[in-house]
């Protein structure tokens, strides 16, 4: 699944229909890994579902509830063991170890999503990658997914935890945790965990913050998905710009949006994949995960991300992880 395409909420029935069609067509094709993005030809209708008052009411940045976990994330979380000078060059192919928390999630042996390793045994991804599917496998330590790289490790998922408030019509709480059958070796350099946001990050808007998206998703409106992991820098925009495209019911304070307008030939990574930023201590912190994009063009319209800091109470509850203040 490359991206969840969304226009306006009332068009969701059609999108789900198209999603099914895509799956059916896909299941008959020979290449299992390559999921064609879901296309429909309805352009986003600016302002159609935008209501200023609804937007202001919903656009609050806050933590869902007080995290209660008491197990710290690994001390190495967010550290990249190897040295990469070109960390912020756009639209590039990743080198092995550059995004050591990146996970390739294979679903029902057919579809793929992105994810991130937040703990040796926990993967964070999007709920729409989990909902309605049966089997999940997580792969780490790889860049080219078409070959069996020596550093690659595949592990089956033991349990799936979809956020209880997930709503597939409005993509509310599009977040899911996968517990692996066994803990991965995160001593690096190709597999490590990414750091989760601080509790205090939950209340800041993140507008104008620049981060990096990584994934095997398609890299332009024309191309298919990629053999190798790619990454691209992106800047967070005001949610209002995003709400004017996707509506003020869908876009709220639990999301963040990025613009693709200023760049050519680059799209986001796969659904569920991580959007990370570096903090002042040079460690990488995941601030978002890929949720939805426009059905028309991923270059012209913004894309929506689940704001990780808005769910750290839930993440802490499910995983037992303690969150930083
Ligand atoms: C990935 O591996 C395949 C199989 O060896 C190869 O054909 C392809 O060129 C590789 N992709 C990249 C971008 O290196």
UniProtKB/TrEMBL annotation:
GO cellular component: extracellular space
SUPFAM superfamilies xref list: Trypsin-like serine proteases
EC number assigned by the record: 3.4.21.84
Record has Mitochondrion as a keyword: no
Record domain Peptidase S1: where: 88-320
GO MF, one example: serine-type endopeptidase activity
Substrates-to-products reaction catalysed: Selective cleavage of 103-Arg-|-Ser-104 and 124-Ile-|-Ile-125 bonds in Limulus clotting factor B to form activated factor B. Cleavage of -Pro-Arg-|-Xaa- bonds in synthetic substrates
PROSITE patterns with a match to the protein in the record: TRYPSIN_DOM (PS50240), TRYPSIN_HIS (PS00134), TRYPSIN_SER (PS00135)
Annotated Pfam families: Trypsin
Key words, A-Z: Disulfide bond, Hemolymph clotting, Hydrolase, Protease, Secreted, Serine protease, Signal, Sushi
Top-level lineage group: Eukaryota
InterPro entries: Peptidase_S1_PA, Peptidase_S1_PA_chymotrypsin, Peptidase_S1A, Serine_Proteases_S1, Trypsin_dom, TRYPSIN_HIS, TRYPSIN_SER
GO BP terms in the entry: hemolymph coagulation; proteolysis
Protein localization: Secreted
EC top class, as a word: hydrolase
Signal peptide: 1-32
UniProt keyword Disulfide bond present: yes
The name this protein goes by in its record: limulus clotting factor C
Organism from which the protein derives: Cloeon dipterum
């Amino acid at each position: 699944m490359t991206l969840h395409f969304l226009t306006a909420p009332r068009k969701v029935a059609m999108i789900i229909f198209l999603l099914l069609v895509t799956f059916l067509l896909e299941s008959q094709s020979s290449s299992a890994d390559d999921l064609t993005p879901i296309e429909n030809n309805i352009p986003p209708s600016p302002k159609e579902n935008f209501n200023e008052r609804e937007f202001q009411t919903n656009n609050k940045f806050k933590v869902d509830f007080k995290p209660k976990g008491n197990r710290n994330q690994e001390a190495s979380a967010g550290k990249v063991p190897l040295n990469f000078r070109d960390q912020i060059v756009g639209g590039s192919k990743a080198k092995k170890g550059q995004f050591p928390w990146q996970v390739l999630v294979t679903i029902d042996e057919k579809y793929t999503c992105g994810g991130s390793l937040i703990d040796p045994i926990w993967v964070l991804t999007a709920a729409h990658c989990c909902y309605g599917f049966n089997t999940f496998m997580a792969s780490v330590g790889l860049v080219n997914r078409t070959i069996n790289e020596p550093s690659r490790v595949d592990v089956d998922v033991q349990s799936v935890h979809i956020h209880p408030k997930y709503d597939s019509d409005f993509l509310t709480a599009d977040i899911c945790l996968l517990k692996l059958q066994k803990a991965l070796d995160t001593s690096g350099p190709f597999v490590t965990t990414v750091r989760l946001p601080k509790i205090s990050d939950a209340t800041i808007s993140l507008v104008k913050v620049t981060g990096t998206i990584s994934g095997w998703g398609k890299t332009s409106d024309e191309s298919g998905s990629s053999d190798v992991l790619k990454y691209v820098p992106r800047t967070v925009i005001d949610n209002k710009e995003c709400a004017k495209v996707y509506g003020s019911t869908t876009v709220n304070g639990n999301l963040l949006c990025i613009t693709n307008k200023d760049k050519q030939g680059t799209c986001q990574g796969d659904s569920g994949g991580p959007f990370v930023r570096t903090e002042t201590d040079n460690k990488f912190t995941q601030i978002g995960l890929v949720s939805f994009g426009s059905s028309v063009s991923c270059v012209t319209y913004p894309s929506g991300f689940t704001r990780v800091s808005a769910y750290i109470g839930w993440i802490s509850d499910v995983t037992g992880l303690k969150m930083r203040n």
